[in-house]
Amino acid sequence: MRQWPAAFARFCYEFVVGDTPELALGVAVIIVGAWLLVRTVGPGTFWCIPLAVVVLMVATLWHAISGAPS
Amino acid sequence: MTGTLLIALAVFGACAVESVEALTIVLAVGLTRGWRSALEGAGAAGLCLVVVVAACGPALVHYVPLSTLRVVVGSLLLVLGLQWLRKALLRASGYKAKHDEDAIYRREVERLSSLPRAGSGRDAVGFAISFKGVLLEGTEVVMIVLTLGLSSGHLTVAALAALAAVVIVGLVGVAVSRQLSEVPENAMKLAVGMMLVTFGTFWGGEGAGVNWPGADLSLLALLAGYAALSWVAVRVLTRTRFPRAAGEAG
């Protein structure tokens, strides 16, 4: 019974982070960055989020193919 | 209206993909260990998932402020969507092997046939494997139903879309009496991944305080942008993976 919290935490970690920790970290940076940008520049900075998502997607794909066997 | 339709489509697609994977396990259990334990295991897991949605959905809406919910939900959807999209793009371009339901089915049947059986009555192994398979595949769907349904205020639409996908995939599976290996799973995963990233971007931004131009209509612009990016990504990745074949074809 005492193992349940640890097993649940492990399941959550695997579910959200899994084998792509760069995506979880990147998304956290994007959301916090957007929050800071809205407070300093204004709410019209909507374009920064999709732009950052595209950069993150390209980076994770680059990371995946650079490690793939040819 | 645009948002509701996209939510229904995203949930339906995600649930259909996961249902195909769950159906493969249930069919393998049913044919090797008996239909009673396979269906009871699947039914019990389905009931657990429905209880989670019914219990967590209203409670989260009641106790968590919408802006907080949208930041958390947006982040979760972005992570899940990017994971799905990344995997689907790598599979579409040949960098990763496609999900082979036939191979998984054969492996499961072989493994289950070798396990000892109880004399009569309910087969505990069959029940447990069917239960675990449906529960694990369904957890991702529950997460998507809850996040999409709660942030948009359309939990019922999301739940009904999920139910429709389960029923349709189940009926088709029963009708053809085998695993659905011909379902274009990767294409569906790609489409759902794009939708999840779209909603994640939208709600993550709203939660952070961003004003989207055109409100819900910007969902369509985001989806179109991510679709274009995915198309370019598949072409570029395929060229880098198979340079000679791409050169001959072009």
How does this structure look, described?
The complex is a heterodimer of chains A (70) and B (250). Chain A is mainly alpha-helical and 70 residues long. Chain A has a domain at 20-66. In chain A, 74% of the residues lie in helices and 0% in strands. Chain A has 3 helices and no strands. Chain A has helices at residues 4-16, 21-40, 48-66. The N and C termini of chain A lie far apart (47 Å). Chain B has 250 residues and is an all-alpha fold. Chain B has one domain (2-113, 123-241). Helices cover 84% and strands 0% of the residues of chain B. Chain B has 9 helices and no strands. Chain B has helices at residues 2-33, 35-63, 66-92, 101-114, 124-152, 155-176, 185-208, 217-241, 243-249. The longest helix of chain B is centred in the N-terminal third of the chain and has 32 residues, at 2-33. Chain B starts with a helix and ends with a helix. The A-B interface holds A 15-16, 18, 20, 23-24, 27-28, 30-31, 34-35, 38-39, 43-46, 49-50, 53-54, 56-58, 60-61, 64-65, 68 and B 71, 74-76, 78-80, 82-83, 85-86, 89-90, 95, 139-140, 143, 197, 200-201, 204-205, 207-213, 218, 222, 225-226, 229, 233, 237, 240-241.
SSE blueprint:
The complex is a heterodimer of chains A (70) and B (250).
Chain A: H1 4-16, H2 21-40, H3 48-66
Chain B: H1 2-33, H2 35-63, H3 66-92, H4 101-114, H5 124-152, H6 155-176, H7 185-208, H8 217-241, H9 243-249
Helix pairs in contact in B: 1-2, 1-4, 1-5, 1-6, 1-7, 2-5, 3-5, 3-7, 3-8, 5-6, 7-8, 8-9
- Give helix and strand order of chain B, one letter per element, not per position: HHHHHHHHH
Coarse morphology of chain A: flat
Structural class of chain A: mainly alpha
Percentage of helical residues of chain B? Answer: over 70%
- Principal-axes geometry of chain B comes out as globular
Q: Compute the gyration radius of chain B: what is it?
A: 20 Å
What is the strand tally of chain A? 0
Overall mean pLDDT of chain B stands at 82
What oligomeric state do these chains adopt? heterodimer
As a percent range, the share of helical residues of chain A equals over 70%
Low-confidence stretches of chain A: none
**Radius of gyration from the alpha-carbon trace of chain A, in angstroms:** 17 Å
Q: How many domains is the backbone of chain B divided into?
A: 1
Tally of individual helices of chain B: 9
Query: Could you say which structural class the secondary elements and strand pairing of chain B correspond to?
Result: mainly alpha
Question: Major sheet of chain B: size, sense and barrel closure?
Answer: none
Unreliable residue stretches of chain B = none
Q: Main sheet of chain A?
A: none
Strand content of chain B: under 5%
